[in-house]
Amino acid sequence: MDSDLCILGAGPAGLMAAISAARHGAGVTVVEANQSAGRKLLVTGGGRCNLTHDATIDEFVRAFGEAGRFLRHSFHEMSPADVRTFFHNRGLPTTIEPDGCIFPAEGRAVDVREVLLTEAKRAGVRLRCGSPAIGVALDGNALAVATARHVIRARRLVVATGGVSWPQTGSTGDGYRFAAALGHTVVAAKAALVPLVTQQKWPGNLAGVAVSDGRIYADCSPQRIASVGAIVFTQDGLGGPAAQDISRLLANELAGGKSDIGLRIDLLPQTPLAELDGQLQQKLSAHARKTISNVLADLVPKRLAATLCTLAGCNGETQAGQVSKEKRRAIGGLLKALPVNVTGTRPIAEATVTRGGVDRRQIDPKTMASKVCTGLYFAGEVIDADGPCGGYNLQMCFSTGALAGHSAARSLSTKSPSTA
User: Fold this and answer.
1) What are the tens digits of pLDDT across the range 313-326?
2) Rounded Cα gap, residues 220 and 250, in angstroms
3) Is residue 2 within 8 Å of residue 152, measured between CB atoms?
C-alpha cells in the first residue's frame, strides 16, 4: 500500500484534511494538479483571503440554506473560532472588519497558504504538486489514483478538487468525474456568487462606480430574496458582494432558463422613503443654485447621480430650486427602488464559487464519508453546498476538510474500501 490516505487537491479543504488526518496518525499523500498548492486560495478576498466570518454556528447553518443542516456537524468539528485559533497559534493573527469578515491581520493570502503548508509538512504530509490525477478506481482493498507518471494505492481517499469556477486556478471539475466513476450522482454545476447581466444598458455608462452599502431585492419577494453590501456597476450589469450574493439566491432560476428577473436596488437602505423625501426637499432648498446632480452627489457617486436624474426624466443641470415636487419624488423613488431586469450572469468561470457538485444526500454529514463507496470522502467546494460572500465558503472548506481528514484517519483500522 502506497499510502494510508490519498487526498486529491491541495486547496484549503485538501490541506486541512491532510493536516487533520496526519494529526490523527494517518500517513497522508496529497496529489495536486498545479505546480504549487493553494492557487485559488491566493486570489480569494482580492488577495487578502477572507478566512471566515464573525458568526455563530447557527448563523452559518442558516447562511447555507438547504445545505446548512448537512454542514452543521462539520462546523462543530472546526468552528469559525477554531479557524481563528488554528492560525493564531501558528503565528498568523486575524482581524474582524465592521461587516464581520475575518482576514489575516496583515491582509496577505500567501501567509494563510504558508501556515497550511508548514503545518502539513510538520505533520509529515507528502505533497506531490504538478501531478494531475487522471482517474480513480477500486483496486482490491484499495482505492487507486492514476496520474500520468504513477498509480497511488491508498486505503482511504478524500476528493477535495473544488468546483469549476476560476478554472485558471486549477478548478476544472475533475472531482465530479472521479465521484461519478465511483458511483456518485453529481448535481449540475451552476454559477454562484457571480456578477449579473442586466437588460438595461445604463450600468455600462457607470462601469467601475461603486456604492458601499446598498440593498438588492427581488420585485416579487423583497424579504425572501434580498442581499446587502457593496454594489459595483459593470459594463453589462452589476457586480460586488450584494449582486454576487443575490446571484446565488437566483442561481436555480437563471440556470432553469428564466431570463427576465425583476430586481430593485435600494441605494440608501438606512433611510426610509418618507425621511429621504424630507432630506431631499431640505437639500434642494438649501442649495437652490446648485445643479440637481451636484446636490444628489452628496448622497451617491456623482456619475450615478447624473444617471438617476436622466432616468427620472430630469435634466441633471437644472438648478435644484427649479426641481418640481414630482421630479423630486421620482428621484427619491429611484434612490430607494432603482429597477433592473436580470437576463443572466457572467460565465461560470468568473463565479467565485460553484453551485452543484457531488450530491450531499450520498455523503454522511457526520463524517463526510461516501454512502456509496466505503473508504471515499469528500471535502470543500466539490460538494453541492455553497454560501454567501464574506468568508462562509472558505470556512466550509476548512470545516469539511477537518472532518473528512479526521474521519478517514479514525476509520483506517476498521474498514476496507468496497462499493455499497
Assistant:
1) 999 999 999 999 99
2) 12
3) yes
Measured CA to CA, the distance from residue 220 to residue 328 in angstroms comes to 26
Q: What is this structure's pTM?
A: 0.92
- Residue-wise pLDDT for 20-49, tens only, equals 999 999 999 999 999 999 999 999 999 999
| Residues with Cβ within 8 Å of residue 352, at least 6 apart in sequence | 165, 166, 192, 193, 194, 244, 389, 393
Q: Over the stretch 334-375, which tens digit does the pLDDT of each residue have?
A: 999 999 999 999 999 999 999 999 999 999 999 999 999 999
- Judged on CB neighbours under 10 Å (0-12, 13-18, 19+), 89 is exposed
- Look at residue 414 and tell me whether its pLDDT is greater than 70: no
Domain extents in the chain: 3-190+355-411, 195-345
Q: Following DSSP, what letter does each residue of 158-183 receive, concatenated?
A: EE----SSSGGGT--SHHHHHHHHTT
Does the domain formed by 3-190+355-411 have CATH 3.30.470.20?
A: no
